[in-house]
Write a structure and sequence with these properties.
It is a single chain. By secondary structure, the protein is mainly beta. The chain has a domain of 119 residues. 4% of the residues lie in helices and 46% in strands. The protein is built from two helices and 37 strands. The strands form nine sheets. Strands 21, 22, 23, 24, 25, 26, 27 and 28 form an eight-stranded antiparallel beta sheet that branches. A hairpin with a 5-residue loop joins strand 19 and strand 20. The chain starts with 8 loop residues before the first helix and ends in a 12-residue tail after the last strand.
Length: 494
């Protein structure tokens, strides 16, 4: 759906000349001497956290720095900076800094205050504000930031800025009376954003949601309820024709007692997806979209503690192109699971389970590389956190490390668990011994050498089985792979 960007002819000629000159100035490398992939240490990381639901102050659970680095002389810093609403004059907000490396910080982010009072003798108006999270040096390694409650329970991962972001979930006829989109620009250049919708009735004309300008270091809020109409399912694509943004979607309304829930971003459309962390539930629902014009044939595989099976039978599920639909996952029978989807054309998907408000969502992630971190977890007061670990292809051994926010009295605790090939394992976790009762804690998930691909999510339950929140676990890297560099015309490709 994105516009094609053409490289100016002059740039192409200059680039071709540079490559040609480089080839003449030095011998062509022998294939046997080709550069190899090397590892580079992560020294910068950025996230963007949306304004708190309902306005007012909010909480961000943040952990930065390599696991086990608490108390060490780690360089760099992690700083939160306000992203005020576009066009609103606010009093300058002070930056907020993380406590230290490898330490779980619960940071209170205030609402913005208008620069001018609403009227004579009145106090400045309170304005919901987004926040950027920027980490440098070794503090950028394995950084994780999440929107959390005041108690420290995370409800949403703060998003990485990008140029193509997807969401899919229920529409207005399926409980989401209000749908709002937050666009956050952490960069120094303006971003131009286009928003496209596909519902169960087909593609929706973009209308005023095309060519939205998001100013630098600001937040914009767009209501998608009018465009979504009376849909039961809505898929949302946010792409930029210039710049990049982070995006978040919230859903709610009177059907759920005016409770609002975050709809996490879905994976980029692909022919293979794995959705981890589906908790035991007899009413889970799978939301699917086929963004391209070609029809899709999907195979859905459930990975459970008892093994793998196909909840919809051996025959592929047929879906038309440019469609959005939902399917009940009642065939799971109340077992914890990961959902693996393979298709002939790119698709994306989300799973919804009943819970507070619209419910709790889990979306597709990649296998964990190095480690993953879930920062905001609570054990006690009726809340029980568990990790749902799935190993679709090959067994896995995993180290789980719990790090309390109260580091003065509790050292990190760890355990090693094994996940059988083709199985899912649900493992309860809790704050390390010595932590204050009910204190928030972070969990670091580290696959051990020789493990097969591992997918994970944190599920927090209230009482016996009510789901209070799900956080799919994404890799929190300390290093990244740099591919070999060689003379190639790909260097000038758009």
């Amino acid at each position: 759906m994105r516009a094609i960007q053409l490289v100016p002819a002059g740039v192409v000629l200059l680039a071709l000349g540079a490559i040609g000159a480089a080839s003449l100035d030095r011998p062509t490398a022998s294939p046997n001497l080709a550069a190899v992939t090397r590892q580079a240490t992560v020294t910068a990381a950025t996230r963007a956290c949306p304004p708190p639901l309902g306005g007012g102050t909010g909480t961000i659970a943040l952990i930065a720095g390599p696991p086990g680095s608490a108390g060490s002389g780690v360089s760099g810093q992690a700083v939160l900076t306000s992203l005020p609403p576009a066009g609103v004059q606010l009093q300058p907000a002070a930056a907020i800094r993380a406590n230290g490396p490898g330490v779980l910080s619960l940071l209170t982010v205030p609402a913005g205050s208008s620069a001018a009072p609403k009227g004579k003798g009145s106090n400045p108006a309170s304005v919901p504000t987004g926040w950027s999270v920027t980490a440098t040096g070794t503090m950028a390694q394995a950084m994780e930031a999440e929107v959390a409650s005041s108690s420290g329970l995370a409800s949403l991962r703060c998003g990485e800025p990008g140029s193509d972001i997807w969401f899919i979930g229920p529409g207005q006829q399926n409980g989401a009376a209000q749908i709002q989109l937050q666009l956050l620009n952490i960069d120094a250049l303006a971003a131009t954003v286009n928003v496209s919708l596909i519902t169960d009735a087909g593609p929706v004309q973009a209308g005023s949601d095309t060519g939205i300008t998001v100013p630098p270091h600001e937040t914009m809020t767009e209501s998608l309820s009018p465009a979504a109409g009376s849909s039961s399912v809505v898929a949302i694509e946010v792409d930029t024709s210039s710049g990049r943004v982070a995006a978040d979607v919230s859903e709610g309304g009177s059907a759920h007692g005016n409770t609002t829930t975050w709809l996490p971003s879905a994976a980029e459309p692909s022919t293979q997806l794995v959705i981890p962390g589906v908790p035991p539930s007899s009413k889970a629902e799978l939301f699917l979209t086929v963004p391209g014009t070609a029809d899709a044939k999907l195979n859905v595989l459930a990975i459970t503690p008892q093994g793998q099976y196909r909840p919809f039978g051996a025959q592929p599920v047929d879906l038309p192109g440019q469609s959005a639909s939902s399917m009940a996952l009642t065939p799971l029978g109340g077992a914890a699971a990961a959902i693996e989807i393979t298709a002939n054309v790119p698709v994306t998907a989300t799973v919804l389970v009943p819970g507070s408000g619209v419910g709790a969502f889990t979306t597709a992630t990649g296998p964990i590389s190095e480690q993953a971190v879930v920062a905001g977890n609570i054990s006690g007061s009726g809340l029980t956190p568990s990790l749902v670990l799935s190993a679709p292809a090959g067994s896995a051994r995993v180290r789980l490390t719990e790090i309390s926010a109260n580091t003065g009295s509790a050292s990190p605790a760890s355990q090693v668990v094994s996940v059988r090939a083709g199985r899912t394992l649900m493992v309860p976790v809790k704050a390390p011994p010595g932590a204050k009762a009910g204190a928030p804690f972070a969990v670091v998930i580290t696959p051990l050498p020789g493990s097969g691909p591992l997918y994970a999510a944190r599920v927090e339950t209230q009482g016996q089985s009510a789901v209070a929140g799900i956080i799919p676990a994404a890799s929190a890297l300390t290093t990244i792979s740099l591919p070999p560099v060689r003379d190639s015309y790909d260097a000038i490709a758009p």
